[in-house]
Write a structure and sequence with these properties.
Layout: E1 2-7, H1 12-24, E2 29-33, H2 42-48, E3 56-60, H3 63-73, E4 76-80, E5 98-102, H4 111-115, E6 119-121, H5 134-146, E7 155-156, E8 159-160
Parallel strand pairs: 1-2, 1-5, 2-3, 4-5, 4-6
Antiparallel strand pairs: 7-8
Helix pairs in contact: 1-2, 1-5
């Protein structure tokens, strides 16, 4: 069981991609730390495929509120960040109830924030790249968290079969009517 946490994330594209991966990998809530709630407009929705409609969001105003929530909900905070010495992702055993935390695209997560986390996990990189994109990192970690789970969905024509009742309702651009289940 995992929660995806973003701390001061700014990019609508990253927000959309993180939402899409969160839904695909079966996360619980998306926890947003920061002053402003995410606004899912066209740029973010082009990456999320409007899957934010299927998510439960928890907005927390600051880092202290986040750590209070973790304690009250018995959720273990794990920072995803490049750190020294590294605890590399393949070697890390995630707790059963874990919050995976992604930082701001430019600043990442502060050392003060990371010291309050149970662990800081680093995704190993092998090519000449200084860091991975926040959404890419989140997706890699979500995959690692769930890769041993049994795959229950069937595949048809190179896609997983999704029941229409599970799909988000999307307004038709011409008529404004909602598609999908009522």
């Amino acid at each position: 069981m995992f929660w995806t946490v973003v701390n001061e994330l700014k990019s609508p594209e990253n927000a959309g991609m993180i939402v899409r991966s969160h839904v695909a990998f079966g996360g619980e809530e998306i926890v947003v730390i920061g002053k402003e709630p995410w606004r899912f407009k066209k740029r973010a929705q082009s990456f999320s495929r409007r899957l934010e409609q299927l998510c439960n969001f928890r907005y927390l105003k600051d880092e202290a509120s986040f750590f209070d929530w973790c304690r009250d909900a018995s959720v273990v905070p794990v920072a995803i960040e490049i750190a020294q010495p590294p605890t590399v992702l393949p070697d890390f055993a995630f707790p059963d109830r874990v919050a995976i935390i992604m930082g701001n695209e430019g600043r990442g997560l502060s050392p003060a924030f990371r010291t309050q986390c149970f662990a800081t996990v680093t995704i190993p990189q092998f090519g000449p790249v200084g860091s991975l994109n926040a959404a890419v990192s989140a997706s890699i970690v979500m995959y690692e968290l769930t890769r041993r789970e049994p795959v229950e969905r069937q595949i048809l024509d190179a896609k997983y079969i999704v029941d229409p009742a599970e799909r988000p309702r999307i307004p038709n651009r011409l008529t404004g009517r909602l598609s999908g289940p009522a």
